[in-house]
Amino acid sequence: MARPLRMEYSGAFYHVTSRGNELKDIFKSDLDREKFLSCLVSAGERYGAVFHAYCLMTNHYHLILETPLGNPSLIMKHINSSYAKYFNIKHKRVGHLLQGRYKAILVEADAYAAELSRYIHLNPVRAGMVKSPEEYRWSSYRFYIEGGESPCMNTGFILGYFGTEGPESRRNYKSYVNEKVAGGYFSPLMEVVASTILGSEDFVREIREKMLNDRSPDRELPALRELKESPRTEQIYEITRKVFVDNFKLARLAGIYLCHRYSDAKLKEIGDLFLLSDSGVTQASRRFEAAMKAEVQLGKKVEEIREILDL
Fold first, then answer.
1. Which of helix, strand or coil describes residue 69?
2. Distance separating alpha carbons of residues 12 and 64, to the nearest angstrom
3. What is the pTM of this model?
4. Which terminus of the chain has fewer CB atoms gathered within 10 Å of its CB, N or C?
């Protein structure tokens, strides 16, 4: 079973969610929700967790979590384990409360924190539970529009994007959220890369270079393979020539196929390297793929190249 790719560092922001096992309810009463919020408070006290938004639905929850100490795994283990233990005792049940591992998406805060908070606060509206987000008691929205303090919440970071004065920023934030109450909402989570990172191209590139390029491949981490930087066409062709050292024709065809299949290069760029048209690249790639299926040894040679390039 594939495991989620965890990237942990000081000051990181995450959108975190977890669902009930078999999609069953994880909150059956107000007391349950109060207990969960107390787990957030204790996570802040013990592990330095900072929460910028939350919404407790019926069978799942959403959080925007900041980790000044770079320890999201410890934070989430504390929250989920503490709450599951309470819930099982309170409701006289046994077994897993939550469905597998929690899901944590690394977020570029400056670009997406405000939009994510709106998405989270509108969850009860989209679910048809309330007509407006301020009607829902079990989200952080009221702290954003009414002020006041919560022992597990920090509203200042996101409200800072909506004005320098408290009343002004709260009014502006409320207007921002209300823009989408009637619908026409596009979820920012649709822009997540490899089910793992939500951010600009520069942010994804920075994370990849700092945290992923030196990591070894792992079959159980498909997101790692998806996020690792694709090899350059010149690099691919160089390796194919070494593997097919005695057969220039096969080296060239293998190079075309692998560049077409695994590089980020456009057809024109591949064509320029191999002196082919765009359609010529596509046709040559298809023919070589068919040849690999027919010839076992050819497929083994290509697999050798894949392993060298970590494809």
1. coil
2. 11
3. 0.72
4. N
Q: Which tokens hold the place of 243?
A: 């593997």
Q: What angle do CA 228, 224, 196 make, to 5 degrees?
A: 105
Bin 275: left if φ > 0, else alpha if -120 < ψ < 50, else beta: left
Inform me whether the pLDDT recorded for 249 exceeds 70: yes
Run of H or E including 79: helix 72-90
The CATH number corresponding to 233-309 among 3.40.50.150, 3.30.499.10, 3.40.50.40, 1.10.1750.10 equals 1.10.1750.10
Paired sense of beta strands 60-67 and 12-19, if any: antiparallel
pLDDT tens profile 53-103? 999 999 999 999 999 999 999 999 999 999 999 999 999 999 999 998 899
What's the CATH superfamily of 12-212? Transposase IS200-like (3.30.70.1290)
Q: Where are the domains of the chain?
A: 12-212, 233-309
Q: Distance of CA 209 to CAs 129, 204, 205, 212, Å?
A: 43, 9, 6, 6
Q: Mapping DSSP to helix (H, G, I), strand (E, B) and coil, where does residue 143 land? A: helix
Paired strand residues for 66:
13, 50
- Please name the residue ranges forming H helices in 136-247: 141-146, 156-159, 166-178, 201-207, 222-227, 233-243
